[in-house]
Amino acid sequence: MEGILKPLNTGISKDEVLDPFGSDVPEGELFFSDIAPNKNFFVVKKFKEIYRVDFRNISIIGENKNGHRVRLKYLKTGKQGDQIDSVFSLTLPQKVDSLAYPINEDNSNVREFINNIPKTIFVERTDFLNLTYQEGSINYQDSLSLKLILQVPLDVSITEPIIFRDTADVGIHDEDQRRELDKAKKLVFTLTSQNGIPLKTVAKVLVLDSLFNPLLPISLILGKLQDSSVTFNAGNVDADGFSTSSTVTSYSAVLDSVDISKIKRMGKIIYENKLFTDPNHIPDPLNSVKIRSGDRISIAGFGTLTYRIDPD
Length: 312
Prior knowledge:
- This protein has helices at about 110-115, 175-180, 220-225, 255-265; strands at about 1-5, 10-20, 40-45, 55-65, 70, 75, 85, 90, 100, 120-130, 135, 145-150, 155, 160-170, 185-195, 200-210, 215, 230, 235, 245, 245-255, 270-275, 290, 295-305.
- It is mainly β.
- The chain has 2 domains: about 15-155, no CATH class; about 160-305.
- The longest helix has 8 residues, at about 175-180.
């Protein structure tokens, strides 16, 4: 269809973006020291150079794993000098098929939005075509899109720990292995971390049966602390705050035959990891450390069994 189109309202559109930062996001909030400049944009796009499009009443809400919500605020009409608002509008001119609106800490609350680590992002908007009554064309293949492109920065300071929690199904079902455990007198169990991330980790591990009845507080046995935790030291960092080498931390404990019998009954493991910056690992005069994509932490557990010898 070509000609002067009466202004068209496409109605309110609602979208949900699940796991924008991956499925295994932590609970709580981060504190990013700054936001990488010239890396974050709203991108508005249409299939071709149809009529002018106005994306109105844009509302973007990020909800983290704990249910805490933060509204993304931006320039009221996308123009420099506008007031920042939680409901805003963006315009795509008629002769342009796509346009990027930069987002930074001067024209938005983008750092607050990212710090909340959204598990789900809710987007609501209303699109208008040809509010200016210009000539143009449109057909059934035309489409409109609004994208939010954010680059999570590497410069991180975490004073309130971020938390990862998960439950895993486990169990020893092999009959030969179960018989070997029946003959065991003791088990020397060791938990070792090799941490190349410049963040300290405080972990808790609890073994339960398949009905979620507690069996063994592994981290309490290993760390012998009242809060049932073990601490894995942060990776070593250089003067710029980047990790230079891994730090190895190990814990060991002896499990007797009673504890070993509980291992036979295990069906679940619940673990919790708290990550935060260690003030002793932040080089002066910085107030943060930097994480690279190749930084890794590995945690492994292993044991050595001592058997009873049956003379028969």
